[in-house]
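TA notes, week 10

Several of you asked for a full example with nothing omitted. So below is the full record: structure tokens for the whole chain, then the designed sequence directly under it. When grading your own attempts, check the secondary structure regions first.
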């Protein structure tokens, strides 16, 4: 089955008891047992639930593997990986740009409990080599990164890490499995904020961890039940619904974002445009090689001040000012005061995360309306 067919058919045969075409929502906390301790594969919905299991099967198949654990949020999924694969005293290497919530999880949750971590330019092989320590347990890789869309050679990073016996986690949220398949490039674990492209309609929060084999996933699977941050059957059903149009949606996100990036890159009010689909992007060739589309997020640094960037972000018509990305409806965010505000200002300055940076999540509206919106708003408050 090819991915677009798989998203509609895989593990989703009509319900045998009723013939219902669409898999039902199994809204139940518990399952009646035939005898004490004898059940039909489900005993309690924190441990396992049929709607969640279907979702896990479809998500895994889309990433080209068979094992997935769904969580109540992307961060709950990340937390399970860090808890399951690291202990106090261990060390993690990550990218210079990393989602603000991931930064906070490392810095304010696991860091104080003894986990050391380093942000490293994974494109610089020598810097990456030097970043490894005997205690390094994971390389945590976003590509493209949030919010500046840096692209890293996933295959190369995986082969360097493998030589040292270190696992690589790829956060594939920005690309989605339609654009990029990290397991084929050597990743050991893939994590998603399902909230974004996979669910696709900005109407739920969810996460997932995927692995090639159940043995690798085991620590995460254990924590899924033991700590209980599981998604509701209804949210799993909504994601299954959203996934049926994933291929169509991503194609339109890619197309609209490419057009928006080309327009912005040529605009005098824009100092710098970050989009892997632009030939001027330093990771363009790698992105072409390792992904089949460049995604729906475009970030720009405006020429004006941080205040000008905030005014621009607040004045767009179709790009609604809000955190998140990956939904059908376009969104805009000012990372320094929104998604990445949990990174202290001095740290943001050190990382080059400018106050004049604006991140656009380009939706699937008619791309011409989106370009008109960008042009009119830049004309009014471009700085
Ligand atoms: C790249 C990335 N990873 C993880 C997350 C966290 O996911 P969630 O918001 O579903 O907890 C986000 C959220 O914005 C994200 O952008």
């Amino acid at each position: 089955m090819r991915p677009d067919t798989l998203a509609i058919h895989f593990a989703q045969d009509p319900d045998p008891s009723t013939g219902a075409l669409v898999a039902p929502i199994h809204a139940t906390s518990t399952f009646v047992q035939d005898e004490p301790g004898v059940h039909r594969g489900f005993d309690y919905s924190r441990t396992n639930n049929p709607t969640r299991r279907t979702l896990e099967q479809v998500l895994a198949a889309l990433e080209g593997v068979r094992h997935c654990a769904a969580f109540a949020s992307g961060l709950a999924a990340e937390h399970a990986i860090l808890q399951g694969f690291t202990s106090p005293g261990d060390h993690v290497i990550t990218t210079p740009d990393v989602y603000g919530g991931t930064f906070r999880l490392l810095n304010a949750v696991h860091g104080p409990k003894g986990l050391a971590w380093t942000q490293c330019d994974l494109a610089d092989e020598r810097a990456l080599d030097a970043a490894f320590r005997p205690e390094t347990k994971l390389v945590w890789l976003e590509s493209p990164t949030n919010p500046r869309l840096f692209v890293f050679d996933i295959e190369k990073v995986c082969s360097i890490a493998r030589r040292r016996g270190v696992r690589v986690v790829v956060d594939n949220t920005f690309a989605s499995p339609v654009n990029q398949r990290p397991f084929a490039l050597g990743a050991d674990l893939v994590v998603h904020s399902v909230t974004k492209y996979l669910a696709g309609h900005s109407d739920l929060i969810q996460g997932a961890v995927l692995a090639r084999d159940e043995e690798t996933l085991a620590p995460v699977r254990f924590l899924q039940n033991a700590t209980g941050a599981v998604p509701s059957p209804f949210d799993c059903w909504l994601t299954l619904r959203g996934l049926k149009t994933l291929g169509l949606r991503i194609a339109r996100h890619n197309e609209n974002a490419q057009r928006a990036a080309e327009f912005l890159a040529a605009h005098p009010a824009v100092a710098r445009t970050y989009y892997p689909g632009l030939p001027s992007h330093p990771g363009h060739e790698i992105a072409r090689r390792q992904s089949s589309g460049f995604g729906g997020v475009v970030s720009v640094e405006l020429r004006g001040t941080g205040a000008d960037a905030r005014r621009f972000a607040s004045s767009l018509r179709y790009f609604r000012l809000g955190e998140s990305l990956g939904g059908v409806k376009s969104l805009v965010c000012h990372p320094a005061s929104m998604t990445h505000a949990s990174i202290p200002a001095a740290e943001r300055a050190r990382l080059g995360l400018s106050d004049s940076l604006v991140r656009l999540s380009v939706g699937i509206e008619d791309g011409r309306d989106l370009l008109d919106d960008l042009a009119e708003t830049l004309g009014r408050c471009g700085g």
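The chain has a mean pLDDT of 96. Use that as a sanity check on your answer.
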